[in-house]
């Protein structure tokens, strides 16, 4: 965890539990309503989740600039923000003058609003806005908002000024009433890696395209279709009607009922533990029974090749793995980073390969399907076809153009030749294009 700096993270559970007793309604508050968690703090130790899935890192202060264009297909009153860490690991924002802004906190422990001009207005609907990122930026996000977001600064545990970003989970965050989304990227001055992520929530529909100086064909991830947030909220309501689970509570709306965003179940569960009850319990028990007498084969898609696994005494053991896997809980499956899916120092290459493939199989509910004894082997048409499953991920992919874009942490786990993760990457980028409100 990246630190709460004197503000109790447990308070977020109180906010979310209170809000989720009824439909979630965003009621923006002030600085006293800010709750700092690992999900909305950017400091010198922050590592965005996508960075754990790639070898590309920000490593140097190379001078290459990155042109960025944003096509506004959404509405008037749109703004862009850029946050990240410079080559020294210091949190920064991009200012309207095209230079990095280094916020300075006063050390009081109270978040202070960043008043520098960091809101970059987009041109009118149907038009394109051009900016230039001056140099390398890691753990970075391009934020697009319908209205102006509020960013704050506070000293972290090392006495370094950190950036407090808008929180999608806190219905009383000062920016809670604004609809926004972001694209994550790493750019080291030569190489870029970017993705569209809905691992924690769905907001404004975004798409992206990457053009390289080499002249290679543009890489495109079209992202969410226009109107996707309303459609996904409706999908959550329909799923609640179908199975009686609390999917409809993942939607966040204004007081008038306008959909602002949809929270992922892992974010919901982190603030409101236990509300999904034993949703996966029967499925988990069936998996354990089936693979007590036959191998579950994990294709590591690496040097270890295929690894045979068997269940026994409530644990799954895999050949060549340094430790076994206990039965997961629903929270473990939603987050893919706790219980049997937590990766710790000392875990060997086999373990680090099994974790994402095993959690992806549980999330997509493919372990009991025909040919599900080899993971990954089934394609996207087999994902989320039986319940229990992650219906948030299912519905999000339904409203993504081509079904592409992270809807959970290990959405980049696919059979060889497939890619559902929604990433673009390459050397010497000449343009990163972002579209808002549907690809064009």
TrEMBL record:
Signal sequence residues: 1-21
Which UniProt keyword terms apply here? Signal
- Keyword Signal assigned to the entry: answer is yes
What the entry lists under Gene3D superfamilies is as follows: Beta-1,3-glucanase, C-terminal domain, Thaumatin
User: InterPro entries given for it?
Assistant: Glyco_hydro_64, Glyco_hydro_64_fam, Glyco_hydro_64_N_2, Osmotin/thaumatin-like_sf
Q: Does the keyword Cell cycle apply?
A: no
Annotated Pfam families: Glyco_hydro_64
> Where does the source fall among the domains of life?
Eukaryota
Q: Where is the GH64 domain?
A: 63-424
Q: PANTHER family annotated for this entry?
A: GLUCANASE B (PTHR38165:SF1), PTHR38165
Q: In its UniProt entry, what is this protein called?
A: GH64 domain-containing protein
Q: Which organism is it from?
A: Xylaria multiplex
């Amino acid at each position: 965890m990246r630190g709460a700096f004197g503000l109790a993270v447990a308070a977020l559970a109180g906010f979310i539990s209170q809000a989720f007793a009824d439909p979630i309604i965003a009621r923006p508050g002030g600085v006293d309503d800010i709750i700092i968690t690992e999900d909305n703090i950017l400091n010198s130790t922050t590592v965005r989740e996508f960075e754990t899935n790639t070898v590309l890192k920000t490593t140097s202060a190379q001078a290459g600039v990155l042109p960025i264009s944003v096509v506004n297909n959404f509405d008037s009153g749109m703004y862009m923000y850029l946050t990240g860490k410079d080559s020294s690991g210091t949190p920064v924002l991009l200012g309207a003058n095209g230079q990095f802004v280094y916020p300075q906190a006063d050390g009081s422990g109270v978040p202070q609003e960043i008043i520098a001009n960091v809101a970059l207005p987009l041109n009118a609907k149907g038009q394109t806005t051009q900016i230039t990122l001056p140099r390398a930026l890691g753990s970075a996000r391009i934020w697009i908002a319908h209205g102006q977001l509020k960013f704050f600064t506070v000293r972290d545990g090392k006495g370094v000024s950190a950036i407090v970003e808008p929180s999608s989970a806190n219905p009383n965050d000062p920016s809670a009433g604004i609809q926004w989304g972001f694209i994550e990227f790493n750019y080291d001055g030569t190489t870029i890696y970017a993705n569209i992520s809905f691992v924690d929530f769905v907001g404004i529909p975004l798409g992206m395209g990457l053009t390289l100086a080499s002249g290679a064909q543009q890489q495109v991830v079209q992202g969410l279709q226009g109107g996707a947030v309303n459609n996904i909220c409706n999908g959550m309501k329909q799923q609640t009607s179908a199975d009686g689970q609390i999917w409809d509570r993942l939607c966040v709306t204004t007081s008038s009922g306008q959909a602002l965003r949809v929270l992922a179940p892992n974010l919901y569960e982190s603030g409101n533990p236990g509300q999904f009850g034993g949703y996966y319990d029967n499925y988990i028990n069936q998996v354990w029974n089936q693979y007590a007498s036959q191998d579950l084969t994990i294709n590591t898609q690496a040097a270890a090749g295929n690894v045979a696994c068997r269940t026994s005494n409530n644990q799954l053991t895999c050949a060549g793995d340094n430790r076994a896997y206990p039965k997961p809980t629903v929270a473990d499956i939603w987050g893919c980073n706790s219980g049997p899916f937590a990766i710790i120092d000392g875990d060997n290459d086999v373990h680090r390969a099994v974790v994402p493939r095993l959690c992806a199989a549980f999330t997509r509910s493919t372990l009991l399907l025909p040919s599900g004894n080899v993971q990954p082997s089934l394609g996207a048409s087999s994902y989320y076809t039986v319940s229990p499953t992650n219906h948030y991920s299912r519905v999000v992919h339904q409203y993504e153009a081509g079904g592409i874009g992270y809807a959970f942490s290990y959405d980049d786990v696919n059979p060889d030749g497939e890619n559902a993760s929604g990433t673009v990457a390459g050397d010497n980028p000449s343009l990163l294009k972002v579209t808002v409100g549907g690809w064009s």
